[in-house]
TrEMBL record, chain A:
Domain Thioredoxin span(s) in chain numbering: 367-466
Domain TXNDC16 N-terminal: 21-118
Entry GO terms, CC: endoplasmic reticulum lumen
Biological source species: Chelonoidis abingdonii
Protein name: Thioredoxin domain containing 16
Cited InterPro entries: Thioredoxin-like_sf (IPR036249), Thioredoxin_domain (IPR013766), TXNDC16 (IPR040090), TXNDC16_2nd (IPR057642), TXNDC16_3rd (IPR057645), TXNDC16_N (IPR057639)
From TrEMBL, chain B:
Chain coiled-coil ranges: none
Name listed for the protein in its UniProt record: FAD-dependent oxidoreductase domain-containing protein 2
PANTHER family, per the entry: FAD-DEPENDENT OXIDOREDUCTASE DOMAIN-CONTAINING PROTEIN 2, FLAVIN-BINDING MONOOXYGENASE-LIKE PROTEIN (AFU_ORTHOLOGUE AFUA_4G09220)
Highest taxon listed in the record's lineage: Eukaryota
Source organism (scientific name): Chelonoidis abingdonii
Length: 796, 689
């Protein structure tokens, strides 16, 4: 527990940090360890567990006195241990001499321990006064020698007290500190009573000993940092004289972020200007610095953007500075409480729809159905598409625009017609159709159950669905020729533009269950996938041809001119749907806004090649071999054409601070680590390079960009009505305890009823209606007062 | 010793009781007609409950003493004009919304049974109501047993019974019926009478002539100041010398109190003639102090009771002191030809055995039986009070005493019973959290139950874990919010919203000026000061306890919430404005749930999906399930203009120009973490217009 001790500290070394710890010693060990010049705070305990244990540790990591807990149980020798109430106290020793004893309840927290201990140790540096006269006497004695720092705190042991003591610890040599807890001593300020305050009394530079010391109030709150700043400002010269380029001037004020006022002086008026500057400086002391600029020493550069303020009066300077400070504060306050953004729409869909509200949509191609016309309309065409929406709901209205575009695209198509139902007008229709949220698009087929559209809410996607769903699925094929035709894509030539890969199920006639499951799967996928079914005798021939055991699926991939075969191992409808869906995902897809969710659902890291145009052949080949090559199951290789998907640029911008050169290959691991890596742009994208790079990533040899994993919080606060109500309607927030009877009485007093007039149980007083005492009955029934009888029964 | 006579008396009672039982037991207790639900009274609330029970396939019967439903309406109101509005046009086709302005229809699935098909009058004839109720009962084939007056109700203990006892009902033919549950829908039909010296000269509203000719040249005093009093005055206003109306407290105008039971503008002709100095007048005074003296000519003089007490009663009428003898300008010194009592009705307590402990309410609610906020009697489990008689719950506040209110509270009682006795949980729908704002907006704009039964029935939104979904329960009695799980069978572990409608706290009242300048609040940020009926949403992290419910401030429908939102009052009661109504609501919900409930175009979701590890609910529940909102060029352009969507196509050129020159890859990777503020333009959404 060796420390330099208080002597060093009071010599003005601020905050020597020493790695002291709380020592636990036996009394003998303690007294023998005492060294000259060192202070220690001792707490005696019987069990070694001190109440203020953790506080003491904290304190003396900051200060240089030792906190020691002496365990009396170990050796019952110390006279302190013997004392009845010693265990309730902490003792401050210096050089084996007891300076103070503190009741432990005065050491209630870190602030109290630090404040009280320093207060005791800095007995000479900090004078405690009880009357203002004492302060004046002290000031007089110090005139011409030292300045006085006078602080008022309402109580000792408070954080403010601690701040003052800490300042005294550092500046106690430079200035005389004076402390009071008597608010009456502040009378000289004439100011409003404050919680605590600190004055700087300028006694050192008093020109005439008969004059009083000037006192400057520190306006900031009492914290160590504020006092430190303030004392620094007080120590600076009142006026700085400057004879150089003002831009090069640096004073303590500028360093502390305070304004510095330059007063431009001319040689002729120098003395008068200096007096003015000093006057202003005293007014602004602690708020701003003042510099006197002798302009004749240097010439300002021509055309320099300097604005001169010509002021009539020194008050204007002061007002200017003080307003600026205030203005900044107000600005700051406003920034904090400014919630006006709350009323500005930040929902892109709502705002977009709102901005488009005045445009009339060309709705003539879409029938508007009502409760009366709905059922009849369904029977009129083979396929009736109905959009259920709410006219006040933004997503519905956005969808309606796409719906109009679909209607235009389908204009003249036989057997399909489009209609809409506004659920705000016809809630019963929507409820009967099981529409509980908006928007919902359904396709009603004459004599069949309706299909609900579950795809993206967009024109192209809905159009594709409507085109594909009008094909009955699965198509039943009966001959091998039909199968070949089907796989070649000739059957649904018109819908082939919707780049769908036809899926053909092949079953042996005996596989009834699997076939039925496939039919069901076909229905589920209707509108999204075209399916065909072959379940005739020659199924085995097909199985042999495509080398696949039955039951099986054949997928005609038109883009690759290839027919894939898949054996169906699991044969429930749901499994078949899953199999078809996963089979339809490409091995090296172009990622678009529309298909990304499908590929993200694989939950694999993405190896994305960003390009601003289509891929050239070699690059495609390299990527394809990556996609099919070694370890390809661990990730999904894909690419993005920024021409087709401009928002990809936004993705790149978010990954990298500057738009990178394209093509760019990136490893995006969204699901596990949220890390993104960029493939070195100086290397060509080849399978070997990429695989080597991926190895490097695995080894952690590259620096990733990490995707934000922040949750999506409310973008802005809501109106706090509860708080507003609290201010005016406190009864809402304070639970007033009324007994049941009390509440009833209260209500009775409020409500005066018709029946009560006949069958009243108790008299309910209504102020202002009572007849005055001593008046004869009926006196208040004068013609002007339309009342029948007095409220009080007359004395009998 | 004192106990003996009492014991004897009770023995005597027991004997008659046993005899009574014996007569019916001859058939055997098992053959006593049994019904799970017995409804007394085929008025609007009885029929309404019958409809719900029938629809749910329950065993029930309605007992009606008359030969047809709605016998009260066959006689009352005496002047045959209903004061419940029959608004046939609202400019809207939404059937639920239109019920907000149809105060006469009962609820059913049959749209033919809407009152607007029965009457074209805004204030329909009472006969039309009788006709309507007849149709309601017959078209829906409700099981009503007419000409059966229930004269006695008692309990029969039986541990097998739903509530530990059966209700034994006895009709005027001494036929007994055994019921598991009793639904009292008898309304309030016993006229309030007042007894004072001379009250024998008073005619009752129920029997007074309705022919104005009978009042020609007469001076009339009417006791009471409710709608029946004013309706009576209205009828004879043109032919009388003058009408004076006396009541204990000031007149309460329904347009000032927002209570439909107070004086309606349609009846207030007498207020005109009084204030326009046409001899009629209104006085306040206590009827208990009153006395009427008839002179030799048959004229009625008003005096005060204590004059009678002080004078010699044996002397003739002429010897009685009249107020004007002492006070020569006494207000009602002119003699009257007729005095009419129009003091309203009270519940008939007489048929219930004492063991049912069906007690009258206190104070102003004395005319109603005492019930819990669940509409169950405080004294007897299994006895529910419906309709007008259940108005003690919201007397002078909401519409529970009137058809347009109790048709909803009756439905709520039915739902409580379905859960309690048949295990059918309160109907609810589960939605993804993205539909939260929409669900509330839809309901506050169209729901009639919330609108009519404001501050009494509320929609409950129960949040699911992690606030990804919610369950919506409609029109639950908020008075029993604390026992929600018990009554509905739904769980409220993750916080809940309660949606109710309220008038401004200090707006309504008999003495309030409801037309003061600047009475309407227009700005969403001051919505909590709204005066007119407007939606209020309470948020609780936990279900309030019974204790918290009982400690709530008087006049507050609910205890202090964790947060509250008012949707600003609207002149058209149309709360669909995107900026004034929906946006602040969304912010409130977002801050309660601590999430982002905005809608996004698919393009934004795409960007988030590739640049964030987490997604806002709209993208997670829509786009990621392949149901993103693609939108079109035009809408995306608007969003770009609003600064809410970045246009990545315009950067195209500059990028290509700069792309090659931009620094090395090391520089590109300078920012290692993507701050969420890189999507700044979505967060700070300043409109640049």
């Amino acid at each position: 527990c060796a420390s330099p001790g208080m002597a060093v500290a009071t010599a003005g070394l601020p905050y020597v940090l020493n790695a002291n710890t709380l020592l636990e010693l036996s009394p003998q060990e303690y007294f023998s360890s005492l060294q000259p010049g060192r202070a220690s705070l001792v707490y005696f305990s019987r069990d070694g567990i001190s109440l203020s244990y953790s506080w003491i540790i904290k304190c003396f990591q900051l200060y240089i006195f030792a906190g020691i807990s002496v365990n009396c149980l170990k050796e019952e020798v110390s006279r302190y241990c013997g004392k009845e109430n010693a265990l309730m106290k902490a003792y401050l020793f210096r050089d084996n001499i007891l300076l103070r004893e503190f009741p432990t309840d005065a050491m209630f927290d870190v602030n109290a321990i630090v404040a009280n201990t320093l207060f005791a140790l800095l007995f000479n540096e900090v004078k405690y006064i009880t009357t203002l006269v004492e302060l004046q006497n002290l000031e007089n004695s110090l005139k011409g020698r030292s300045n006085v720092v006078f602080a008022y705190v309402p109580a000792v042991g408070t954080p403010e007290h601690r701040a003052v003591m800490e300042a005294a610890f550092v500046y106690g040599v430079a200035h005389q500190f004076v402390l009071t807890t008597e608010a009456a001593n502040l009378d000289f300020t004439g100011a409003e009573p404050v919680l605590h305050s600190l004055f700087f009394c300028h006694c050192q530079r008093v020109p005439d000993l008969t004059q009083p010391c000037r006192r400057t109030l520190m306006v900031q709150s009492l914290t160590t940092l504020n006092i430190h700043r303030y004392l620094k400002l007080m120590a600076a010269p009142v006026v700085t004289e400057v004879a150089e380029d003002p831009e090069k001037v640096s004073t303590i004020h500028l360093q502390l972020g305070l304004p510095l006022v330059f007063i431009l002086s001319q040689q002729e008026t120098y003395e008068a200007d200096k007096r003015t500057a000093e006057f202003v400086a005293w007014q602004l002391l602690g708020k701003a610095g003042v510099a006197l600029l002798s302009s004749w020493y240097f010439s300002l550069p021509q055309g320099a953007p300097i604005k001169y303020l010509v002021l009539e009066d020194t008050d204007e300077i002061i007002a200017l500075v003080e307003d600026k400070i205030k203005g900044e504060q107000i600005q700051k306050d406003e920034d904090e409480s400014d919630n006006n953004d709350q009323d500005i729409q930040d929902d892109q869909v709502m705002e977009a729809v709102y901005r488009d509200r005045k445009r009339e949509l060309p709705l003539e191609l879409i029938r508007t159905l009502t409760e009366e016309t709905f059922n009849a309309a369904l029977t009129e065409t083979a396929h009736m598409v109905v959009l259920f929406y709410a006219s006040w709901e933004a997503v519905s209205l956005a969808m309606l625009q796409s719906y109009v575009e679909v209607a235009i695209a389908l204009k003249g198509t036989q057997g399909i017609s489009l209609a809409k139902v506004n659920c705000w007008d016809w809630p019963d229709v929507c409820m009967k159709q099981n529409v509980t949220q908006f928007p919902i698009t359904k396709m009603y087929e004459k004599g069949a159950r309706s299909l609900t559209y579950t795809g993206m809410l967009g024109t192209a996607e809905l159009l594709r669905f409507l085109r594909l769903s009008s094909i009955s699925c699965p198509a039943k094929l009966t001959t091998i020729e039909e199968v070949d035709e089907y796989l070649s894509g000739e059957v649904h030539a018109d819908s082939s533009s919707y780049h769908s890969t036809p899926v053909l199920g092949i079953f042996h006639p005996s596989m009834k269950e699997a076939r039925e499951a496939f039919v069901e799967a076909g229905n589920v996928l209707r509108g999204y996938v075209t399916t065909g079914l072959y379940a005739e005798d020659e199924a085995l021939v097909l199985a042999h041809k495509y080398a696949v055991p039955l039951p099986a699926l054949l997928l005609a991939r038109r883009e690759d001119h290839r027919i894939d075969s898949v054996s169906l191992s699991k044969q429930s409808a749901l499994d078949i749907v899953q199999t078809i869906r996963s089979q339809l995902l490409e091995t090296f897809p172009e990622i678009t806004v529309e298909n990304l969710p499908d590929y993200l659902s694989l939950e694999k890291p993405l190896l994305i090649l960003f390009n601003d145009r289509g891929l050239n052949r070699s690059m495609r080949m390299e990527m394809l071999s990556l996609a099919n090559g070694k370890g390809h199951e661990a990730f999904l290789a894909c690419w993005m054409n920024l021409k087709n998907t401009p928002v990809g640029r936004g993705v790149l911008k978010a990954y990298f601070s500057t738009p990178p050169p394209l093509p760019l290959l990136a490893w995006v691991n969204r699901h596990s680590s949220g890390q993104v890596f960029a493939f070195p742009s100086d290397q060509p994208v080849t399978e070997t390079n990429v695989l080597a790079w991926l190895e490097k990533l695995k080894a952690g040899l590259d620096i990733p960009t990490t995707l934000s994993d922040e949750a999506w919080k409310p973008p802005l606060p809501a109106y706090n009505f509860l708080r507003m109500m609290e201010a005016t309607l406190p009864k809402f927030t304070v639970h007033t305890v009324y007994s049941r009877g009390g509440t009833d009485e209260l209500q009775q007093a409020e409500e005066v009823s018709e029946e009560k007039s006949m069958v009243r149980e108790e008299q309910v007083e209504e102020p202002g209606l009572e007849a005055e005492e001593g008046q004869s009955p009926g006196r208040d029934l004068r013609g002007t007062v339309p009342r029948l009888a007095g409220r009080e029964k007359p004395p009998k | 010793m004192m106990a003996l006579p009492a014991a004897q008396r009770s023995w005597g009672l027991l004997l008659t009781f046993a005899f009574y039982m014996g007569s019916s037991c001859t058939e055997g207790a098992s053959t006593l007609p049994h019904h799970n639900y017995c409804i007394i009274g085929a008025g609007p609330s009885g029929l309404q409950m019958a409809y719900f029970l029938q629809h749910a396939g329950r065993n029930y019967v309605v007992f009606e003493r008359s030969h047809a439903p709605g016998s009260f309406f066959a006689l009352y109101p005496r002047h045959r004009k209903l004061i419940s509005i029959n608004k046939r046009h609202t400019g809207k086709s939404n059937s639920e919304f239109n019920l907000r302005h149809d105060w006469n229809s009962l609820l059913s699935h049959d749209s033919r049974l809407l009152f607007r098909h029965y009457s074209h009058d805004f204030f329909p004839e009472a006969d039309t109501m009788v006709h309507y109720l007849e149709d309601f009962a017959s078209m829906l084939e409700l099981r009503v047993q007419y000409n059966t007056a229930i004269i006695h109700v008692r309990l029969e203990r039986d541990s097998q019974a739903w509530n530990g006892h059966y209700f034994i009902l006895t009709d005027h033919n001494n036929q007994n019926y055994r019921c598991s549950l009793l639904l009292v829908a008898t309304g309030t039909w016993v006229p309030n009478v007042v007894n004072f010296p001379g009250s024998e000269y008073v005619e009752g509203y129920e029997s007074v002539s309705i022919n104005p000719e009978d009042f020609a040249g007469q001076s009339v005093l009417i006791l009471g100041r409710g709608n029946s009093a004013f309706e009576t005055a209205e009828n004879i206003l043109g032919v009388t010398n003058f009408i004076h109306m006396v009541s204990r407290s000031r007149v309460r105008l329904s347009w000032a109190t927002h209570y439909v039971g107070d004086l309606r503008a349609i009846n207030n002709g007498l207020l005109d003639t009084y204030q326009l100095k046409s001899l009629d007048g209104l006085l306040e005074g206590d009827l208990e102090d009153l006395a009427i003296v008839k002179d030799k000519k048959g004229k009625l003089h008003i005096t005060l009771k204590f004059y009678l007490e002080n004078s010699n009663s044996s002397a003739g009428a002429e010897s009685i002191t009249l107020p004007q003898d002492e006070l020569d300008n006494f207000a009602t010194r002119a003699p009257y030809d007729r005095v009419i009592r129009c003091l309203g009705w009270k519940f008939d307590f007489s048929i219930y055995n004492r063991s049912l402990r069906l007690m009258p309410g206190k104070g102003t609610k004395k005319k109603y039986p005492l019930i819990k906020p669940s509409y169950e009697s405080r004294g007897t489990r299994g006895l529910f009070v419906l309709g007008t008689a259940s108005h003690s719950i919201d007397f002078r506040k909401s519409a529970g005493g009137f058809i347009h209110g109790f048709r909803y509270t009756t439905r709520a009682v039915h739902r409580l019973l379905e859960h309690r006795h048949h295990g059918v949980p309160w109907p609810s729908s589960v939605y993804p959290i993205t539909q939260l704002t929409n669900s509330i907006i839809k309901r506050v704009n169209e729901a009639s139950g919330l609108y009519q039964m404001f501050s009494v029935l509320g929609d409950i939104i129960l949040l699911r874990e992690n606030a990804t979904a919610f369950e919506y329960l409609e029109e639950y009695p908020v008075g029993i919010l604390a026992e929600l799980e018990l009554h509905t069978g739904r769980k409220a572990h993750n916080g809940l919203f309660v949606v109710v409608m309220e008038y401004g706290k200090n707006f309504s009242g008999a003495d309030k000026d409801v037309f003061y300048y600047n009475r309407a609040v227009g700005e969403a940020q001051h919505a909590w000061q709204s005066n007119f009926l407007h939606p209020v949403i309470y948020y609780y992290k936990q279900l309030p306890t019974v204790r918290e419910m009982s400690l709530r401030p008087p006049d507050w429908p609910l205890p202090r919430p964790d947060a509250v939102h008012h949707i600003v009052e609207d002149f058209l009661t149309d709360w669909t404005a995107p900026n004034a109504h929906i946006l602040p609501l969304r912010r409130f919900l977002e801050n309660c749930l601590d999430t982002d409930l905005r809608n996004f175009f698919a393009e934004s979701c795409f960007l988030f999906a590739l640049t964030h590890q987490k997604l806002p609910p709209f993208c997670q529940q829509g786009y990621m399930r392949m149901q993103g909102l693609v939108g079109n060029e035009r809408l995306r352009h608007h969003a770009v203009e609003a600064g809410l969507l970045e246009d990545h196509t315009v950067m195209h050129f500059t990028d290509e120009l700069l792309g090659g020159q931009r620094g090395s890859r090391d520089q590109l990777l300078k920012d290692h973490v993507i701050p969420s503020s890189s999507l700044h333009y979505l967060v700070t959404a300043k409109d640049e217009l």
